[in-house]
Amino acid sequence: MQENEVIYIPANDNLTLGKRNNRQLRVASYSRVSTDAEEQLTSFHSQKSYYTDLIMRTPEWTLAGTYADEGISGASAEKRPSFMNMIRQCKKGKIDLIITKSISRFARNTMDSIKYVRLLKGMGIGVIFEKEGINTLEENSEVVLTILSSLAQEELNSLSLNVKMGKRMAMKDGKTNFVKMYAYQKGDDGKPEIIPQEAEIIKTIYKLYLDGASIKKIADDLNENKIKSHGKDGTWKVSTISSILQNERYCGDVLLQKTYVTDPISKKVKRNNGELPKYLIKNNHPAIISRDIFNKAQEERAKRLGKQKVSKLTKTEQGKYCGLYALSEILICGECLSPYRRVVWHRRNGEKTPVWRCINRIENGTKYCKESATIDEESLHTAIMESINHLRGNKQEMIPIFLQELKKEISENSKNSFNIDDMEKQLTELKENIMTLVKESIANNTVSANESKLKAMNDEVKELNDNIMLYKKRNTNSNDKFIHLEQLLKHESSTENKYDDNLVRELIDTIKVIGDNKLQIIFKYGITYEQEISIKINRLNKNK
Q1: What is the full per-residue pLDDT of the chain (544 aa) written as tens digits?
Q2: How far is 214 from 499, CA to CA, in rounded Å?
Q3: Which candidate, 165, 544, 505, 75, places its Cα nearest to that of 325?
């Protein structure tokens, strides 16, 4: 068995929770009028038109839909079809932010308002109430109830951060817990140990899949042959086979932090698409299949998914299977900041040419994006690999940049230095004072009179908590930057210019298309590089 190797996969700084610095936020608007007598500025159509234009003219935003209920009371959310449709789209992960005129436009029922604001916040989705100047991703007072829940939540957040930091430190050291799975059992050393008979089934599943069998056919064959799974009823399901074919543990590796808990209140689990770091531990335990077979299975899966039909008119969305291409996640328009989408042009001679185009330009013409370039995939891949090879071939030039960044961060930490023990003691005392004042206010019926004081104290609690968490995160980030530098030095330059999606995902954060002949490539290591590109297609003579 080969020596245990830990590979650090850094978080995407521009996808950190609550931020999308180099990407657009998908923003939806919600409008509602209860009668036909509303003034023009708050009318149904005026609101829709106003917010559509506001969103489309804000470079950091892209339109995720305009939702409106006309002539409907806000007393109950369930009786507002457009509102409920918006909530469903939020649950599907298609909206990042909602903007509406005021709290009364969002809901007249206080419980509904609190219920849906908290539901959305649990999914990481904010609501901006323009009139009140409130963004629900920021802390706001709901008088005593909110103050009490806020105190409890801050306490949980702090505890959760400490637990997460402990787990991540263990991940960095290559420490893993045994996970029960088919074909493995827990060995005496706590590591996964192969179950020979079941291992043969895993090998068969991968072989059948690579030989062209569908996942359903594989499941049916196993069930017909009376081979038991680990499920409750012992039968094989499509989801079980699919999970096995995507599980890197069968080739001896472990990828940690593939998911994360969005917040300690809702405990909602979300797939980690780069918001947090991942840790790939190679050769963690005995492999059942080779890494080569596992990689071929992933390629085969991508091909099969790519053949499934996807609508070409998916408004503001990149398409269901856009994740198959690394560039769908990171390639954006330098003019309007909208993502690029891969499309295939069909020429008269039958030749197919894959190209990348700005989604905003495809769907809205030149109204909001006038000069975005259409780039053929071959030229794009070549330019990206040239930039990567330049980076890997000039490591010594990159080291001073890293050292400068580290020096800057250390300097910022020293400027904002404080005694962490004193801050935590102050926080505990402040929470106790708030609880005392809340109890007195309830007992003496002086909640309204003390509301502003409670809000001020609650804001101070949040500020203290934020400072403590920032201090802890900065210490972690400084350590991570040393790991970034170490990883960069491991990369070998290559004369081979073959494009590699996995390499692009590992190294690059964002690629901006600047004009017709230049890419601005932002690497995850903090380096921005400009790369010339020679586009081969003729935009005027193409036949789509």
Answers
A1: 677 777 766 655 544 444 555 678 999 999 876 555 445 445 667 777 888 889 988 888 999 999 988 755 444 455 688 899 999 999 999 999 999 887 667 765 555 677 788 888 888 888 887 876 667 776 443 444 355 444 545 555 666 665 666 666 665 556 677 788 999 998 888 888 999 999 999 999 999 998 888 899 999 999 999 999 998 889 999 999 999 999 999 998 888 877 777 665 556 777 777 666 777 788 888 999 998 899 888 888 877 775 444 334 443 344 333 446 778 878 999 999 999 988 888 877 778 889 999 998 888 888 888 888 999 999 999 999 988 888 777 666 666 666 666 566 555 555 555 677 788 788 788 878 877 777 677 667 776 777 778 778 877 887 887 777 777 666 655 555 555 555 555 555 544 567 887 778 777 889 999 988 899 998 876 678 899 998 877 543 444 4
A2: 28
A3: 505
Please answer whether residues 382 and 517 qualify as being in contact, where contact means their C-beta atoms are separated by less than 8 angstroms: no
Spatial separation of the C-alpha atoms in residues 125 and 393, rounded to whole Å:
42
Helix, strand and coil content of the chain, in percent to the nearest 5, comes to 50, 15, 35
User: Which is it for the CA torsion 48, 53, 58, 62, positive or negative?
Assistant: positive
Q: 3-state class of 75 per DSSP?
A: coil
Q: How far apart, in whole angstroms, are the C-alpha atoms of residue 178 and residue 60?
A: 43
d(CA 188, CA 537): 61
Map residue 302 onto helix, strand or coil.
helix
Compute the distance between CA of residue 147 and CA of residue 233 in angstroms, rounded to an integer: 48
Sheet of strand 126-129, all strands in order from the earlier edge strand to the far edge: 61-70, 25-33, 97-100, 126-129, 134-135
SS3 at position 16: coil
**Which H or E run contains 282?**
strand 278-282
Nearest to 289 by CA among 198, 213, 221: 198
Residue type, 92: K
What gap in Å lies between CA 97 and CA 27, rounded to an integer?
5
Long-range contacts of residues 212-218, Cβ cutoff 8 Å, at least 24 apart: 215/241, 215/242, 215/245
- Of 494, 491, 497, 478, the residue nearest 523 (C-alpha): 491
Six-digit token string for 530: 């400009």
Question: Token digits for 46?
Answer: 């005026």
DSSP secondary structure code for residue 13 in this structure: G
Query: Could you give the dihedral angle defined by the CA atoms of residues 457, 460, 461 and 462, in that order, rounded to the nearest 10 degrees?
Result: 130
DSSP secondary structure of 389-427: HHHHHTHHHHHHHHHHHHHHHHHHHHHT---HHHHHHHH
> Residue 45: which H helix or E strand, with range?
helix 44-56
| Torsion (CA) 481, 485, 490, 493 in degrees, nearest 10 | 130
Residues 6+ apart with CB under 8 A from 513: 331, 332, 333, 334, 340, 358, 372, 373, 375, 519
Residue type, 38: E
Structure tokens at 249: 């543990």
